[in-house]
Each structure stands twice: as structure tokens, then as C-alpha cells.
Write a structure and sequence with these properties.
Length: 225
């Protein structure tokens, strides 16, 4: 049973020099969450931001901050990110050893606990920790950069993820991240995703706030290709 639809714009593609304006624009456009892509130059080659940006965002909005850690040893950031105001803490199981312990620590620190899977990482990686998950993020690009194309076969993985969640009676959010546009969001939604990250599709649009609504409109139209 899917959750209500959420659109989570990624500030990776925002103009950080105008952060307050960008956040106001996202709120005005009806964003549900704000997605924050943390990259360490090791798990992925790109290097982005950490607790100071999360804290700055927390001071600008009451929207949930959906923090996606593409870092090695993500456990090092559980406490600092909780203190900075993160709402969802999603890490890659490929990046650490004691996954279950860290998921529990995320919840103990008052955040929702998420795991993200690279396109090439099997779903079986999360089967033993289904009860510890508030969110499961299926990457539809190899992480590291905004503006990549949606990998078509991710749709089938989303479908299998929905089955897995339902089999376990899990109410975890099923999030998809990478290459989400008005043309691809219908496929991900039709396969059972309920939470949609979008970076370049929103911030490169002529009217970014309106683009959030256009992404939502795809569901109203019942697009499922
Ligand atoms: C990819 C990041 C994504 C990225 C999405 O490494 O995890 O969140 O910002 O950007 P788009 O929507 O442009 O693919
Ligand atoms: Zn992300």
C-alpha cells in the first residue's frame, strides 16, 4: 500500500548564493520535502556539503530535510546531522559495515532511517533490516551528479521493491532518485514509488516552482508509462 505522493527537490541543483530565495520558491511551488545530497569525494567523486548547510536550511524552512548521504562511514554523521536539523537520514549500505546498528542509531537520534541502493546493488542487501527502515531509496542513476538520465531498468527494481515492502507489511517510503522528469516520473510512480527526488528537472525549468506542480500533474493524468 503506497504512501501519499511526495516531491523532494534536490538543493544540489539550486543556486546556493540565493538559498533563502530558492527555499521560498520550493515552498511556494508545493515541495513536500527538501532533498540534501551529501557527497564526500570518496563514495562518489563529487564533494558537496554537510552539517552547516543542513543547519542553514533548517533555519529557513519547516519542511522535512531529506538528507541522502553518499559518503563512506555515514555513521560518523548521525549525531551532527541530527543536531543540525535533518529529518530523514538515508545512507548506502555499500558504504559501511554495521548497517542495522546504524539504522537503530538514526532512529534513536530522532530521525527517520533510510537506506539507498545503487543501481547495481541487489535488493537482497536490505531484506534482513526491513523492520529498521522508514525509507528505501532506489537510485535510478549511479550517484554523484545531477542531470543524468533515468536508467530504464530501474523501473523493474522499483516494482520488486514495492513487492518486498508489501510482503513485509512495511509502511516505509519508497523513494526514487535520479533523472526524474515529467517524462519519467510516471513510470516510477506506476511501479510503486511514492517519493520523488528531482534536481535538474526543477531547477533548470523556466519556472521551477511551476515544474513541481507539473511533476504532480503527471499523477492526476494517471500516466503510468
Ligand atoms: C544523484 C543525487 C540526486 C541528484 C538528482 O547523485 O543523489 O539526488 O541531485 O538530480 P537529477 O534529478 O538532476 O538527476
Ligand atoms: Zn539524492
Amino acid at each position: 500500500m503506497a504512501n501519499p505522493i511526495r516531491v523532494a527537490p534536490s538543493v544540489l541543483s539550486a543556486d546556493l548564493g540565493r538559498l533563502a530565495d530558492e527555499v521560498q520558491m520550493l515552498e511556494g511551488g508545493g515541495a513536500d520535502w527538501i532533498h540534501v545530497d551529501v557527497m564526500d569525494g570518496r563514495f562518489v567523486s563529487n564533494l558537496t556539503f554537510g552539517a552547516p548547510l543542513i543547519k542553514a536550511l533548517r533555519g529557513l524552512t519547516d519542511l522535512p530535510l531529506d538528507v541522502h548521504l553518499m559518503v563512506m562511514e555515514p555513521e560518523r554523521y548521525i549525531e551532527p546531522f541530527a543536531q543540525a536539523g535533518a529529518s530523514v537520514f538515508t545512507f548506502h549500505p555499500e558504504a559501511t559495515i554495521h548497517v542495522q546498528r546504524h539504522l537503530a542509531a538514526v532512529r534513536e537520534n530522532g530521525m527517520r532511517a533510510g537506506l539507498a541502493l545503487n543501481p547495481g546493488t541487489p535488493l537482497s542487501m536490505v531484506e534482513e533490516v526491513m523492520d529498521d527502515l522508514d525509507l528505501l531509496l532506489i537510485m535510478s542513476v549511479n550517484p554523484g551528479f545531477a542531470g543524468q538520465s533515468y536508467i530504464g531498468w530501474a523501473t523493474d527494481k522499483i516494482r520488486r521493491t514495492r513487492l518486498l515492502l508489501d510482503q513485509h507489511g512495511s509502511g516505509a517510503f519508497l523513494e526514487v532518485d535520479g533523472g526524474i522528469t515529467p517524462d519519467t516520473i510516471g513510470a516510477a510512480h506506476g511501479a510503486g514509488a511514492d517519493t520523488f527526488v528531482a534536481g535538474s528537472a526543477i531547477f533548470s525549468a523556466p519556472d521551477p516552482a511551476a515544474r513541481i506542480g507539473e511533476l504532480r500533474d503527471r499523477f492526476k493524468e494517471g500516466v503510468s508509462v
